């Protein structure tokens, strides 16, 4: 079973903190892969907040092609965090090339576009580059978005962390999602590694999504750029979060109402019963059947955790509001390793109706129950 | 019987009949029950004369001839009275002295079935014992990484939606603007398909209604039953139980006068309105209630004279095309109940199903599409229609579901699949397979008669006399002397029994697949079949 660990902090921290936590939870994953999502970046990227960052793995030819591609469209690289490992890769990890995060100053035409168009264009660019890379094998692109870096690699998280020197200051971030992968139903494919990302929203999951095919077909039929690929049965969770928040304008506390709606009895006395019952019907295709624990991060830096209805996957949230650091973990030992001196009585293990949310200010864990009145929808 | 029988082109010997009566003279008590119960008079009491020649030993005494007479059972060989294999004779025989036996090599009768230039009509089944649905396996079973759910303990939500569901975007918009929303019913995914009052005997119909009411009110299973075209008894129309009923309207409009007159006095809305364009077993053909079954009661409810055959035309001027239906029928039916009742058409699975569906997707009032496959049973149809016409349900349904996926409307228009579900008793497995191929719900007719009332029909052309009012079990007869055999209470009990066991079996399929909180509509990755061509056609996995 994959292990999940997420950190959200007021000050940028090293991703190795999350990797260490994954290492403590090693019993639960086989070290067949690791994925990292970093946002709220510190270091040199902090200065370049509005500039989209392209992150991925490139061969020399691939990198050249990326520069050409971006230059053709008038986008200029502002800053690059490149890492080309010289050492022998850990067992099971192929030697690939350059792990790069390139911050771009986008063209004047792009900047003249309305926000929604800009976002769509960024997604399209990422998909175009990914398609080109899949053909040539020279380019792998995981994200192209402001203030976001994604790193994915096959192998043991700790070994990969050391191999890729993830402790570098340029990778320090306020919001980190990290997953230690347990290879299960599918062949190892880097694009299948968690976390997944679309337009500022990233989620990761453990378990299996048995409703994958109907959900995938439904999302693909929505005509949203970026709802494609689907190398993992859990990738749909990210897109559901995107669909619910960006396309339907729902608050993230409603995410659970979409993926695991309440049954009739639970809904009976709810003040928003009519809305919720209609939402359940119209989003019926997005109901998941787990078992899953979903941890995700939103564009504003809020982090959340929710489970399947049966709660067959555990999860725990805890942290230190004074220091402004909170962690979401699939195992309590991971949380203990990352934030040992927290007030453990305040740890929260969300149950089947709960969503745990920590805002970007990292002051408290907001515990939303599906039985609560709905928060204001955006 | 004549000593010298005429031998004409249509003369048959007993050997030529597919069902032959085996009668044992030694155990027969000659009570006569078998001959009186035989629905087609295939057997009759016979007086047999036997000549016995006694040849004494020696040369002097001459042989003597003795004649004896005995009584027994004679099987008639006239094609009009051929045994149908229903085995009612055996059911009433105190000693099991008599029973029909199937002779598969006797095929001659089929050349003699059509008499006086009349094609054979029959009730019942498509005489093909194959079932594609039975070959489909459920292969995506959660094992190690993902614990299978416990079918007995976990909560399951085995409900589905009948009605036009808005897209999430429109739903939220409509909620904020307080706009009109199409009506949607949350029902059990196994629906009792249209079998009309008239086609079924009053006892059978009453039994089904009682079973459905019990399931709803005592078992918390929102089961729905379609009336078929024959209308609905006035008392039911004005009762609260009408909410468990889907009213059907078809090209004959039988019974609609009664329904329309009842609208102002209805306490509840019906569950839905089904507009029937076709039946899977006889696509492109209309309904047919033969004169045998049109007694006073049926004539009164349908608003027709007694004792005349009631063929529904295959089309009617008000609904001669789906465009007409979309534009007029669906809207006017919706209007009749103040747009509070879902209205959907039912068509035979055919090459035009997709066209119909595409049309419905564009109609905001269309509440779904029922597709009936070729294996569907029907009360009366021509032999050629039942055996040779129609489209299998699986591929037709799949095509329609995939078309909905392309249009992004797969949650918006529910597909109701029927035809051949539970043909060999595997009701839950067949229903689950169709749901995973894309059906929102399935409808059954034959299975209800077989399981709920002990119908004797089979895919080997057994019985199949539903059309002429002599149903030996009283399921489809309108003759009180026959339908008194059927106890409505017992039918209701059986309906409840098989619904509950269906529910358990469905959980036993869904739980290992890891699905419990919503119906696995379109979960095609769970399905596999050992036939490559079928796997490719249905876009499911090929497994051997």
TrEMBL record, chain A:
Residues 2-359 form the Glutamine amidotransferase type-2 domain. Coiled coil: none annotated. It comes from the Bacteria. InterPro entries: GATase_2_dom, Ntn_hydrolases_N. This is Glutamine amidotransferase type-2 domain-containing protein.
From TrEMBL, chain B:
It catalyses: 2 L-glutamate + NADP(+) = L-glutamine + 2-oxoglutarate + NADPH + H(+). CDD domains: GltS_FMN. It comes from Pseudodesulfovibrio portus. This is glutamate synthase (NADPH). Residues 19-48, 73-103 form the 4Fe-4S ferredoxin-type domain. Residues 112-121 have a biased composition (Low complexity). The keyword Cell inner membrane does not apply. It comes from the Bacteria. Residues 103-127 are annotated as: Disordered. Belongs to the glutamate synthase family.
């Amino acid at each position: 079973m994959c292990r999940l660990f997420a950190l959200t902090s007021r000050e940028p921290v090293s991703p190795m903190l999350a990797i260490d936590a994954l290492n403590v939870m090693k019993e639960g994953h086989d070290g067949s892969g690791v994925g990292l999502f970093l946002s709220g970046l510190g270091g040199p990227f902090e200065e370049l907040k509005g500039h989209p960052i392209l992150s991925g793995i490139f061969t020399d030819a691939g990198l050249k092609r990326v520069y050409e591609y971006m230059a053709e469209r008038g986008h200029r690289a502002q800053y690059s965090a490149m890492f080309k490992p010289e050492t022998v890769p850990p067992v099971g990890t192929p030697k690939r090339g350059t792990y790069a995060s390139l911050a771009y100053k986008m063209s004047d035409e792009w900047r003249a576009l309305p926000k929604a168009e800009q976002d769509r264009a960024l997604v399209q660019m990422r998909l175009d580059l990914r398609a080109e890379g899949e053909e040539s094998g020279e380019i792998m692109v995981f994200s192209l978005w402001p203030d976001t870096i994604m790193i994915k690699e096959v192998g043991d998280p700790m070994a990969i962390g050391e191999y890729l020197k993830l402790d570098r200051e340029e990778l320090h971030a306020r919001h980190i999602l990290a997953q230690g992968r347990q290879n299960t139903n599918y062949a190892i494919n880097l694009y299948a590694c968690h976390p997944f990302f679309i337009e500022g929203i990233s989620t990761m999951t453990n378990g299996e999504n048995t409703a994958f095919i109907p959900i995938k077909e439904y999302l693909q039929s929505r005509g949203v750029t970026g709802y494609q690929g689907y190398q993992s049965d859990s990738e749909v969770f990210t897109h559901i979060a995107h669909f619910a928040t960006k396309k339907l304008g729902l608050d993230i506390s409603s995410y659970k109402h979409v993926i695991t709606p309440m049954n009739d009895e639970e809904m009976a006395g709810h003040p928003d019963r009519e809305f919720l019952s209609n939402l359940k019907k119209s989003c019926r295709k997005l109901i998941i059947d787990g078992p899953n624990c979903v941890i995700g991060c939103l564009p504003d830096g809020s982090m959340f955790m929710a489970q399947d209805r049966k709660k067959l996957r555990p999860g725990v949230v805890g942290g230190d509001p004074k220091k402004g650091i909170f962690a979401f973990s699939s195992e309590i030992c991971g949380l203990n390793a990352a934030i040992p001196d927290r007030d453990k009585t305040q740890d929260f293990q969300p149950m089947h109706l709960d969503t745990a949310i920590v805002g970007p200010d990292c002051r408290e864990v907001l515990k939303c129950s599906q039985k609560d009145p709905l928060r204001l929808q955006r | 019987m004549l000593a010298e029988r005429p031998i004409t082109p249509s003369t048959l010997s007993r050997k030529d009949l597919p069902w032959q009566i085996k009668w044992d003279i030694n155990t027969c008590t000659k009570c006569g029950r078998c001959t009186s119960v035989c629905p087609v008079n295939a057997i009759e009491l016979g007086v047999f004369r036997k000549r016995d020649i006694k040849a004494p030993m020696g040369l002097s005494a001459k042989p003597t001839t003795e004649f004896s007479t005995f009584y027994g059972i004679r099987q008639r060989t006239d094609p009009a009275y051929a045994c149908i294999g229903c085995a009612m004779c055996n059911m009433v025989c105190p000693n099991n002295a008599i029973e029909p036996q199937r002779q598969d090599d006797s095929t001659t009768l089929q050349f003699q079935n059509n008499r006086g230039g009349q094609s054979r009509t029959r009730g019942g089944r498509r005489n093909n014992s194959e079932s594609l649905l039975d070959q489909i396996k459920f292969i995506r079973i959660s094992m190690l990484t993902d614990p299978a759910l416990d079918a007995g303990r976990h909560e399951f939500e085995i409900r589905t939606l009948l009605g036009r569901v808005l897209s999430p975007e429109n739903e939220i918009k409509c909620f904020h603007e307080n706009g009109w929303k199409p009506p949607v019913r949350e029902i059990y995914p196994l629906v009792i398909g249209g079998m009309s009052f008239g086609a079924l005997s009053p006892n059978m119909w009453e039994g089904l209604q009682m079973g459905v009411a019990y399931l709803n009110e005592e078992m918390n299973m929102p089961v729905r039953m379609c009336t078929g075209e024959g209308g609905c008894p006035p008392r039911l129309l004005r009762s609260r139980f009408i909410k468990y009923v889907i009213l059907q309207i078809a090209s004959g409009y039988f019974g609609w006068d009664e329904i329309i007159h009842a609208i102002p006095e209805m306490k509840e809305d019906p569950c839905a309105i089904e507009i029937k364009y076709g039946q899977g077993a006889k696509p492109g053909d209309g309904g047919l209630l033969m004169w045998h079954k049109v007694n006073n009661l049926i004539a009164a409810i349908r608003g027709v004279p007694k004792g005349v055959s009631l063929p529904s035309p295959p089309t009617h001027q008000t609904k001669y095309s789906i465009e007409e239906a979309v534009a007029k029928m669906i809207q006017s039916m919706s209007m009749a109940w103040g747009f509070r009742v879902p209205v959907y058409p039912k068509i035979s699975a055919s090459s035009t199903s997709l066209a119909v569906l595409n049309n419905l997707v564009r109609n905001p009032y269309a509440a779904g599409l029922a597709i009936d496959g070729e294996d569907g049973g029907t009360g009366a149809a021509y032999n050629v229609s039942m055996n040779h016409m129609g489209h299998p349900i699986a591929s037709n349904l799949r095509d329609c579901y995939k078309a909905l996926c392309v249009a992004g409307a797969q949650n918006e228009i529910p597909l109701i699949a029927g035809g051949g579900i539970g043909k060999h008793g595997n009701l839950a497995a067949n229903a689950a397979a169709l749901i995973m191929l894309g059906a929102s719900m399935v409808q059954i007719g034959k299975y209800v008669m077989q399981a709920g009332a002990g119908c004797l029909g089979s895919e080997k052309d057994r019985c199949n006399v539903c059309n002429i009012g002599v149903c030996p079990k009283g399921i489809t007869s309108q003759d009180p002397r026959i339908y008194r055999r059927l106890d409505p209470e017992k039918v209701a009990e059986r309906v409840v029994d098989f619904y509950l066991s269906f529910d358990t079996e469905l959980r036993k399929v869904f739980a290992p697949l890891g699905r419990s909180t919503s119906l696995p509509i379109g979960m095609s990755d769970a399905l596999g079949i050992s036939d490559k061509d079928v796997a490719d056609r249905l876009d499911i996995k090929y497994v051997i």
